[in-house]
């Protein structure tokens, strides 16, 4: 490259202003009838939230602090922090033909579907999700696209491939030998050393959480639902390696033995937790593990799309999951909000709240599961509440969600990172 060309490039770079996002100098004030303090459980009236850039600057500030701010008047609405779903599958849908998609679709197909579902999820008021398993790292591609503002969607804490034994729940079973065979790179491993390699490979390619399939599951063709599949040594190897990298681990675990082995091996959360005995509840509580029940899907899943063997497993496990949730409430376990979206239609995430309340959870505790408890599980402290300094992830609904939890199914305003994504508040 010539000296003259280098000089021209240098002059251009030195004089060019840094690129700033559109919201960098914005000041916006949201005005509504009330907001929910999720920590105290109190509805606070009135509600004025000043947003500067991506962050909340003040709550109910003095009038002079609003000088120069754009006012968005939401009228008789209730403001809440953006909701968090800690168990989603944005690139996945249980629709006719879903079981053969892995041999028909590319990463691009899954990621493009995920972009559609990400918009639906954000419009439903969920500004953060933990996405647990996608084929060919399509979830990691989608997460990057959202972070770069290429597509709209919630922030994603994504896992990449889930980790499974050969022929286990998260191995792609049901195909002929040689078709979609797995390896540690695609999450299929046997023995502690292979599982360590599988963890490292997911983290190498951007995974922010590791998911394991500690037990058999429902939407797969392997053995009886809930049977333990990963050994304790394998589970411990995964948790030790992931934690060494500062990454948390979620364990798909339906059955009692797998739940106990996971809890005692350092797992951060147990997903589904469908067949939990008193012994399992004691192990979970002793080790401070979160449980993430996924209950709404039992009434919403398209049973006609399920092959007979899988339909049988779903019918078997659904009532047990409800009873396990009641036991979790009785024993005071830490419960975070998750839905398994993709098993039911995306965008209906908030319908999980009503199921939990119908089974005995208080509305405020259900909401805390999707806000402050979710942030504790995810290890993030910059969201989940309405407070100065936190991310401006804010939603609005009609009425009082503590009196009618189904109000959360009808979100009329969504702000993420200080940007307004949805505003139907005037309708």
Envelope shape: globular
Helix content: 25-40%
Question: Any low-confidence stretches, pLDDT <50, length ≥5?
Answer: 1-25
Output the number of helix runs.
Answer: 12
Strand content: 15-25%
Record field, number of beta strands? 18
Major β-sheet profile: 6 strands, mixed
State the end-to-end CA separation: 60 Å
The radius of gyration computed from the alpha-carbon positions, rounded to a whole number of angstroms, is: 23 Å
Mean pLDDT across the residues is: 91
Give the oligomer, counting copies of the same chain as homo and different chains as hetero: single chain
Question: H/E series, N to C?
Answer: HEEEEEEEEHEHEHEHEHEHEHHEHHHEEE
- What is the topology, as strand order, of the major beta sheet? 3-2-7-16-17-18
Class by helix and strand content? alpha/beta
């Amino acid at each position: 490259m010539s000296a003259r060309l280098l000089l021209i490039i240098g002059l251009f770079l030195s004089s060019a202003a840094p690129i700033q996002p559109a919201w960098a100098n914005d000041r916006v004030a949201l005005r509504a009838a009330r907001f929910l303090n999720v920590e105290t459980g109190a509805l606070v009236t009135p509600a004025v939230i000043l947003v500067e850039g991506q962050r909340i600057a003040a709550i109910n500030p003095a009038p002079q602090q609003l000088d120069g701010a754009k006012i968005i008047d939401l009228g008789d609405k209730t403001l809440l922090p953006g909701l968090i779903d800690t168990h989603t599958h944005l690139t996945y849908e249980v629709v006719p033909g879903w079981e053969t998609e892995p041999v028909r679709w590319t990463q691009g197909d899954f990621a493009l579907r995920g972009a559609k579902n990400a918009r639906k999820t954000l419009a439903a008021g969920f500004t953060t999700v933990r996405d647990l398993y996608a084929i060919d790292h399509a979830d990691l591609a989608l997460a990057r696209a959202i972070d770069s503002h290429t597509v709209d969607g919630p922030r994603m804490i994504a896992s990449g491939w889930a980790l499974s034994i050969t022929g286990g729940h998260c191995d792609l079973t049901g195909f002929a030998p040689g078709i979609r065979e797995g390896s540690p790179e695609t999450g299929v491993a046997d023995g502690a050393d292979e599982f360590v390699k599988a963890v490292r490979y997911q983290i190498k390619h951007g995974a922010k959480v590791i998911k394991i399939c500690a037990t058999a599951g429902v939407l797969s063709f392997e053995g009886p639902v809930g049977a333990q599949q990963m050994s304790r040594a394998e589970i411990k190897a995964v948790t030790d390696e992931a934690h060494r990298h500062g990454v948390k681990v979620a364990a798909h675990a339906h059955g009692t033995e797998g739940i106990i082995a996971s809890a005692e091996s350092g797992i951060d959360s147990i997903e589904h937790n469908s067949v939990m005995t008193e012994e399992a509840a004691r192990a979970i509580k002793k080790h401070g593990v979160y449980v993430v029940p996924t209950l709404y899907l039992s009434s919403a899943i398209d049973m006609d799309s399920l092959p007979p063997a899988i339909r049988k497993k779903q019918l078997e496990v659904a009532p047990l999951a409800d009873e396990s949730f009641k036991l979790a409430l009785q024993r005071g376990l830490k419960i975070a909000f998750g839905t398994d979206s993709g098993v039911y239609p995306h965008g209906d995430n908030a319908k999980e709240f009503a199921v939990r309340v119908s089974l005995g959870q208080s509305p405020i505790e259900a909401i805390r599961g999707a806000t402050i408890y979710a942030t504790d599980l995810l290890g993030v402290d910059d969201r989940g509440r309405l407070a100065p300094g936190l991310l401006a992830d804010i939603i609005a609904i009609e009425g009082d969600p503590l009196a009618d939890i189904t109000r959360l199914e009808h979100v009329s305003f969504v702000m993420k990172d200080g940007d307004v994504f949805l505003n139907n508040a005037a309708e």
